[in-house]
Amino acid sequence: MPRPHVVIVGGGFGGLYAAKALRRAPVDVTVIDRRNHHVFQPLLYQVATAGLSAIDIGEPIRRILRRSRNTTVLLGEVVDVSADEVVLASGDAVRFDYLVVAAGAAHSYFGHDEWAEHAPGLKSIEDALDIRRRILSAFEEAELEPDPERRRALLTFVIVGAGPTGAELAGAVAELARHTLEGDFRRFRTSDARILLLEAGDAVVPGYPPSLSAKARRQLERLGVEVRTGSMVTEVSADGVEARGERIEARTVLWAAGVAASPLGEALEAPVDRAGRVQVEPDLTVPGRPNVFVAGDLAAVHQEGRPVPGVAPAAIQMGRHAAAAIRRLVEDGEAPVPFHYVDKGSMATLGRSAAVAQIRGLRLSGFPAWVAWLTVHIFFLIGFRNRLVVLFEWAKAYLTYGRSARLILYHRR
Predict the structure, then answer these.
(1) Taking the mean position of all CA atoms in its chain, how far away is CA 221?
(2) Would you state the pLDDT for residue 174?
(3) Reduced to 3 states, what is the DSSP secondary structure of residue 190?
(4) Which listed residue, 14, 307, 369, 382, has the most CB atoms within 10 A of its CB?
């Protein structure tokens, strides 16, 4: 009798940890992803700002799962889901007995998808390399630009959205301009660059306690970031943005303001929320489909009246929960239990020795929060080589402000 077949869509945190948890289960597993690698998304901003190379935060999915003898990895994009199979863009179909959909999320421009061309978001290595190219190219073009007004626009960097990603990007760009590139150019001072962080709400890193949010703002301002809350962006173009009726001339605009779930959620023919996330049952199954689980950013999960945040620890816990539920169903015939998210805290780094963190009621800022952030991120990085290289790069950056990934890469057309 053939063993049950589990298909996992997505090689991010949710899908990867589900696959690892099924390593010794009496099932056959197939992991499908449109990229051949898992990327440690919390550090993408460091690739985007030349602090790390792409290879430092990525690992081939096949290598990660090479010891899982019951697991097959397929490179492909799932475009549809039927009652018992997933359909790939190539036209191939893969049958399943159990399905875990952890396809993640994309950028949301709140109905203005045309802004994407001028304000890239940060969800993949490709995004990070594109942003890095834009940032470094702006300085190079400024060296060639004789007109002061045009140079000022080239040296103005706008980050839209002051959540953790936006705040981290703003702090990293400020350090790049104020310290890393200092003295490298002859026709202008890189410290003259303007870094603006625009937030439609009234706080930086919303969701954190007000005291930590205020400290985050002060730390960013000490780095030279102009923080503007209550500044909803109403227009984005190749020349800049408009916010609160003010036109800001800027050649580099980065988007960190919105997230939309993968369109694969709609293919499940399940109820979705405004962001496209699947409104799952308490056990993470799709309503009416007890053999289909949704994990990570694609799942809309509420606990104690609040949504479970779309962060890596939540995705990891969901992936493990889905795997444990499948094991119970296969081995014991027991129904899945409700998912319970254990909030171990949240943290964001804003620059050298600057960070905020909330860890189980303990609130940290500045250097202690920064050390906690470093420790946690090194621990969760996959691969000994990645941990060693990242630790070395961070130590070098702390001592010298140096960044070793300052290559401008272009795609061949």
Answers:
(1) 24
(2) 96
(3) helix
(4) 14
- Write down the pLDDT at residue 411: 58
Name residue 392's amino acid: F
Using CB atoms within 10 Å of the CB of residue 153, give its burial: 0 to 12 exposed, 13 to 18 middle, 19+ buried: buried
Q: Which residues are catalytic?
A: 168
Burial group, residue 407, by CB count within 10 angstroms (0-12, 13-18, 19+): exposed
What whole-number distance in Å separates Cα of residue 387 and Cα of residue 321? 26
5-34+76-107+259-331 and 113-257: identical CATH topology: yes
Q: Which pair of tokens denotes residue 186? A: 């002859």
Q: Domain boundaries in the chain?
A: 5-34+76-107+259-331, 113-257
pTM of the entire predicted model = 0.91
Task: Tell me whether residue 70 is exposed, middle or buried, using C-beta atoms within 10 angstroms of its C-beta: 0 to 12, 13 to 18, 19 or more.
Answer: middle
Instruction: Please state, in angstroms and rounded to a whole number, the distance separating the CA atoms of residues 64 and 382.
Output: 8
Longest dimension (CA), the chain: 75
Q: Which CATH class is domain 113-257?
A: alpha beta
CA angle 12, 269, 332 (to 5 degrees): 65
Edge-to-edge strands of the sheet including 71-75?
A: 71-75, 28-33, 5-9, 98-101, 289-294, 285-286
Mark 74-92 as b/e (b = at least 16 C-beta within 10 Å).
eebebeebeeeebbbeeee
Angle at which helices 367-380 and 384-400 cross, to 10°: 160
- DSSP character at residue 296: G
246 burial (CB, 10 Å; 0-12 / 13-18 / 19+) is exposed
Distances (CA, A) of 219 to 138, 170, 209, 350: 25, 11, 16, 7
**Is the Cβ–Cβ distance between 275 and 331 less than 8 Å?**
no
Burial of 157 (0-12, 13-18, 19+ CB in 10 A): buried
If DSSP codes are grouped into helix, strand and coil, which group holds residue 342?
coil
End-to-end CA distance of the chain: 51
| pLDDT < 50: residue spans in the chain | 413
Answer whether 353's CB lies under 8 Å from 366's CB.
yes
Fold type of domain 5-34+76-107+259-331: FAD/NAD(P)-binding domain (3.50.50)
Predicted pLDDT at 253 = 97
